[in-house]
Design brief:
Layout lengths: L1 E6 L2 H11 L6 E6 L2 H4 L4 E3 L7 H10 L4 E4 L2 H5 L2 H7 L4 E2 L3 H8 L1 H11 L6 E4 L2 H6 L6 E5 L8 E4 L2 H13 L10 E5 L4 E10 L3 E3 L4 E2 L2 E3 L3 E4 L4 E4 L6 H21 L5 E11 L2 E8 L7 H6 L5 H9 L14 E8 L16 H5 L4 E5 L2 E3 L5 E3 L3 E9 L2 H12 L19
Parallel strand pairs: 1-2, 1-4, 2-3, 4-5
Antiparallel strand pairs: 6-9, 7-8, 7-9, 10-11, 10-16, 12-15, 13-14, 15-18, 16-17, 18-22, 19-22, 20-21
Helix pairs in contact: 6-7, 7-10
Amino acid sequence: MRCLVVGGGGREHALAQALARSPQVTEVLVAPGNPGIAAEPRVRCVAVAASDVDALAALTDAEDVDLTVIGPEAPLVAGLADVLRARGRRVLGPGADAARLEGSKVFAKQVMQAAGVPTAAWHAFDRFEDARAALPDGPVVIKADGLAAGKGVVVAPDRATAEAALAEMMVAQRFGAAGATVLIEACLEGEEVSVIALCDGTRALCFPPAQDHKRVGEGDTGPNTGGMGAYAPAACLDADALDAVRRTVLEPVLAEMARRGAPFRGFLYAGLMLTAEGPRVLEFNVRFGDPEAQPLLALLAGDAADLFAAAADGALPPGPLPLRAGAAACVVLASEGYPAAPRLGDPITGLDAATAVEGVTVHHAGTAVDATGALRTAGGRVLGVTATADDLPTALARCYVAADRVRWPGLHYRRDIGHRAR
């Protein structure tokens, strides 16, 4: 079996590792990949951009790829899965119509409404003056409708903050067309948790619940990021509650998408708020989260190639996902200036010492090799230090022992990942 993973970050590093562990996989291609991915056994990086749909389609033909797993949201929304399926290729990832669950927050709300899925009250606007006039005096959430690299959501505690967010999206057009339409949403209170499921169009097999840490600073302070760390399982959602989410959120959405002629095959991510009235959906993503993918895939005990191929074929086996006992965590190491203006090109040292820690894997997210072969920073989120253990405190302790061994100028990371579980 020959596999292709589309993307080049920490999530794709974890996906490539999981597929390469399968005894039936002879090679995993990753486009474009990164230096850490290229160092994995049975993995080869190919210099094709994740956004180049035509070149990726040609690559699957040239390499006779048996299974393609699409990591990032942008190529899914652009219809890469549709193009590959039209060529007779097996793909894990939704087509463009189903990827609108992430590509348009208005569409996602409409699907939830049709499927009876609980979510926050909302209104959509495409004129700034109308949106501003509708603002209440209390807290609200302002969301750009389209893809905004995880930065198009503002939790506004007061009207002035909400007006500024609307102006930034609709007048200043910070997110381009993605902010042409905005949602004003009721602000929910409770604990956030992520549920990610492997889906075959009908059935959803859930990974353990995870908690991400979006804010750059400890104590959940500072601006939002792509994610500074994650851990699983999150105790705030027990086995019965997780099964209820599957029955009341995931499967109704799968049924509604199938009814619309857009069956969902891939990773469906439900971001939930656990309110006093029960779980409410904050958002859907149509792919694995990053950095949730790193700890969750570390807990997967089954053959990833078998499971991913079965989902792509619409034929997942009944029953739960095969999972390892214990817990896993990931701590993201970031460049100086991240998330606003990350500094690039700093030399990275200490990786061998970090990976020598028991249970630790270091996933590359934003790295590059210079002309001398030295590893350097090449992004805001540079590395993800992932660890497994019998329990969460041990997994987190291993992450931090390893993280403390890595060096580059300006490196920073949160030292309180998992604080809500402590």
